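Memo to structure team: turn this sequence into structure tokens by end of day. - J.P.
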Amino acid sequence: MTIFSRNYFSGLTGSWLLPAFVSGAVLLVGLGISGGLCWQAKQQDADSLRAAFESAADMAIDNINDRFNVYAVVMHGVRGFFNSSVAISFNEFHTYVQALHLYEKAGVQAIGLVMLVSNAEKARHIQAMRQQKSADYQIKPDGQRDYYAPIIYIEPFAGDNLKAFGFDPLTVPAALSAMEQARDADNIRITSRIALIQDTDKPYVYSFVMYLPLYKKGAEFATLAQRRAAIIGWVDVPFRINDLMAGIRRQLPTDISLEIYDGITLSEQTRLFQSGIGLEEKSRGADNLQTSRSIVVGGRQWVVRMTAAPAFENRAIYRYRPELVFATSVTLTLLLTLLTWQLARSRQTAEIHFRQLFRQAGEGILILNDDHLILDANNTALTLLGYSRAELLSLHLPAILATVENVSLPALASMAESGAVSLEQWRYRCKNGTEFPSEVSVRRLDGQRYFAILRDRTERQKAEQRILRLTQLYQALSETNQAIVRMDNARELFPLVCRCAVAFGGMKMAWIGQLNEADLVIVPVAAYGVGQEYLDGLVISASADVAEGLGPTGTALRENRPVIINDYLNNPMTIHWHERAKHFAWGAAGTFPIRRNGKPFAVLTVYHNQINAFDTEAIELLKEMACDITFALDNFDRDVQRQAAQKALAENEAKLSLIMENVSAYIYLKDKEGRYLYVNRPCLELWGLTMADVIGVTDEVLFDHQLAAKIRADDRHLFMTGEILRGEETGTATKTGKTATYWAVKMPLRHTDGSIYALCGISTDITERKQIEAQLQQQLKELRQWFDITLGREERVMQLKTEINKLLGRLGEPPRYADPASDLEA
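Reply from structure team:
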């Protein structure tokens, strides 16, 4: 590297004393910050622990309230069920409670109905209950009272709950108080701590019961007096407090003890629940992590006291976090001190690293002063420009720029002075005089110097040109295809293809030559672009026997393959046309055969001004264009054939319709269901109907019942066997009343697969013929009788023979007597 580079980058390192001073200052400041962070971490831990505990306490209270809200909804549901029913049987109550899924509601011992029974109704009540549910039903405890409130329904009706069946909770003072409060308030009320009748043999099982009043249906209970007069029972839901809290505790942290007291007095007598003696004793050791909350449940005030165990503190916060923060801070301080020292030493090696990077960079780098003198260059720049280092460092920038770029130097100087980053496209001149395109990034280095990064764009430019050619060809192909879709004749096709190849495909000139089969000459029929005069007097043949047929155009047509000439003026295949083509500077050419109905028809020839313009993808796109032209020509031919066929079909249909409408026979088509699809004019005149009246109807509408049944049977036989049917049909047309005899011929109509889909019938009215035949038979009978009587009279015999021959002739039979006169003489 030059002295400039070494001096410039060696100034970056600074004094050796500065790193030591900065490192010591960093160490002192870091230790002070570490102590402060440790104290702050302790304060944050205390605040976080208290916040976590309070949050857990709030969650416990919310869970208890949510659980009792669920139970309240269940009880109101039971009351709604009771009020909406005329009477509730044991089975109905059982089914309803089963649907509540009590086993999913932890703590609920049962759901029962308590009905108020007066002393006068006691006997009748007991008898009804025994008939309905249990023969040994009894109100418990026994005794004489003005009113009883037995539990008449209880679910689940099994296990300990059987003890409560018939039990009168009015005999329990706590229950009596809760029931009266519920009655008076028309709301849920709970008892104080009691022992359930189900748990009489289970000591230390604390429970309570929730009551919701039931009033007479239709009674007013807006006032206290009305409610007391309308009361008829209660919804009874007993709870074991331990079971209830077990369900709630599953949703609470296990390292917080829970105590619940009935009322504001906290004592052994009022305690409803305690989560665990061992945990509670451990909880006492936690400093100040205890809180009490008051909640109202069913009209009673409970106090919930929560105490955190040491395990809660370990879980909520990391106990050793302040020490860890201090240790981490000290460690980071030491590392930062070491890093500061290391950075100071590293900067001394930065110059070496930069020097290596500068020399080995894959892009050319030039360092210049404000006079555009080249101060340094890396190896890539030397390779691109072809100079040695000594030669290049003696030059100014204009010496290596193409002449056209020198006008940009003033603008470059202005940008360099401003410090702005400039990205330019320049052409550089090498030592040997050749030029190459380059993308140049210019940026200020310091107050007197700037640097330029050179990227050779030769290959990139080639790729961009190739992409441009392919893009143009794609557009040309797209435009051609769109035009083919809109075009309805071949006359406009060839000029349009040539125009698309030049206007959109980037070709210099395009022409299409069509084969004259008589002399095998390829005649230009369409052309577009610069250099069309090249075609004036041009002779190209499809024959391989003449020189004019050995070029790319003739070869492509004859051999049905594309012929690509990527260096037109130097390819021996085009030598016959070099003299003519050199005036147009063709760089490359491509010829693509066009066929019509599978035969050679024409050739598309395109010219480009660049050598090697046709790569594989470009050739494929042009081949596709030629194939699209072939498809369009074939499609035009198919369209002409289709139009001719349609015209012939329309003419035949017109002739057939004229014949069918003017014959005297009745012609018709019917589907397999016997519905008419078509009838000719004589049919409509016979039935006295229009075409709209007939299409879709069956013979039952048109003929008498007997003929319609015969026709239907014959039609079914035809569809089943596929046979052609012939026979007479005699009947009466329903609307016109015409009775006639028809000779009917019916034949099946089939799909291409042979299946029958309809029948065609032709019926001829033979009523008059039948009448004539009857008359002739009668006359013939009379003549024969007369002949027998007058056998001796020769003249009469001759007359009779003559009359007989005449009658037979009218019947369509040959004469019986060749010459009556001669027979008579004989």
